């Protein structure tokens, strides 16, 4: 293995904040493509349709060992009861590290409305999952001088739990979720590598529209905090919808900014930069099908690769019931 390949893997492992190899299911911007259940378990079964969502994400095309992620999620209401269930499967790879995960979710939805027209709902969700962590050391150089390197594929399986709640009031929504509540040691054998993968997410948004207009607008924010590393970031999102005869066309822009900086040498001294991502996305609802494309671009001065992050989302809605509520609430109606 040459020096260039070692450098590539080092940069991927150290500087890619969104692809830490042992963090559970990574939090990207795919929740904006009608996929809030992927990050908030309380959204299982909240909509009037059951939903299937399949995503594929690839970073840094042309680079060996570049991070990539695939997810499959299914969620829906249990008959006409106030309960919902869901399942998430994912495969996450980053260099020599990889994860396979599966989560099962139960959610309960409490209605505070006087009738079914007014939306006023509080939801609770709990996800229990198993994650298999892997580290392939078979390609590592080891002449017997490093006892840590085994030269084989190491693996370990841990359990974890996500819990959260959501509140919908007419056109307004809020979500709060604690992810990776349990500690996962995984394949780490270094006491300085944290096993605390706990992450807190807070999402707030509102949908605005004029009476009888085919256009609606949805600003939202999401704040996330990593307990183990004390890192935090915020997403500022703007989304627009247009009703059509066949369904809906929508798109928008997300801006992610980290509150934590990293120092680097710029030739004249030491500078600091904070992680910044711009993510435009576009999608279409055609009858019961969904198609979406997401592109993320890192705008920092020092980056590993000028290429972006590409993601495709395919969806299908089934077991749909009539739209109960008079609101601009795409996640529910």
Shape: globular
What does the oligomeric state look like here?
single chain
Indicate the structural class.
Answer: mainly beta
Q: What profile does the largest beta sheet have?
A: 14 strands, antiparallel, barrel
Radius of gyration computed on alpha carbons = 21 Å
Strand order of the largest sheet: 1-2-3-4-5-6-7-8-9-10-11-12-13-14
H and E string: HEEEEEEEEEEEEEE
Extract low-pLDDT stretches: 1-21
Please estimate the helix content.
Answer: under 10%
Structure, explained:
The chain has one helix spanning 3-15, and strands at residues 50-59, 68-77, 83-94, 97-111, 120-136, 153-169, 172-179, 199-206, 215-226, 231-243, 247-265, 270-286, 289-298, 309-318. With 333 residues, it is mostly beta strands. The chain has a 14-stranded antiparallel β-barrel with strand order 1-2-3-4-5-6-7-8-9-10-11-12-13-14. β8 and β9 form a beta hairpin.
